[in-house]
Amino acid sequence: MDKIFQRPESLRDISTHYCPGCGHGITHRLIAEVVDELGIRERVIGVAPVGCAVVAYNYWNFDCSEAAHGRALAVATAIKRMRPENIVFTYQGDGDLAAIGTNETVHAANRGENLTVVFINNAIYGMTGGQMAPTTLLGQKTTTTPKGRDVKLQGYPFKISEMLASLAGVCYIERSALYSVQEIIKTKKAIKQAFQNQMDNLGFSLVEVLSPCPTCWGMPPQQALEWIRDTMAKEFPLGIIK
Fold first, then answer.
1. In sequence order, which residues have a C-beta less than 8 Å from that of residue 219 and are 6 or more positions away?
2. Can you give the residue range of the structural domain that contains 53?
3. Considering the domain boundaries, does residue 17 fall inside one?
4. CATH code, domain with 201
5. Is 14 part of a structural domain of the chain?
6. Structural domains of the chain, count
7. Would you give the DSSP letter of residue 138?
8. Which terminal CB of the chain, N or C, has fewer other CB atoms within 10 Å?
9. The pTM is what?
């Protein structure tokens, strides 16, 4: 019998440490599939900073580097400038990319660094206990906003993709989601485009992925997917932003 579905070569055969219903495992596989399809496994270098995906290098069967919290794009910039022949990408959560790493994110984008960014937006700090993140929705309850995010106290959800789209150095930004098979397919297409842009030397590309965090949201996995579709995607509209 012909095998028509199998583990990508760029994905290791190990047990997951992620919570049930977490979106990181799905996105890890999509990246592995894209790397294999583009034939860049021997050229690609991933950079994962602190967060739920800090051990992403355990899952990917290609070269990776770990960065301090928020500094992934600084590390990626150094790697790409020293080894321009490599395909370098960062894999960052919302707390990392849009909070402690905002400076690195904005300036790498503004310089037009020829890099690819996969930005996981689950609207919360997952690894450290479920605190409010820059992307937490108004009214959303977290461990640091037990009564819900209040605009007068914590401001508005940070739409960093829209902000980065205004910068001349950015060539491509798309927001996708993982709440259905159709959206997962779109997410893979967006990630593949972001890698292709780097291969074509077009500049800075970012794919924002709306991803479920059932544990910290206090929801069963299916409800978490529905919450992305019905609530989160209204605050963070899907589609090509630039």
1. 227
2. 24-240
3. no
4. 3.40.50.970
5. no
6. 1
7. B
8. N
9. 0.95
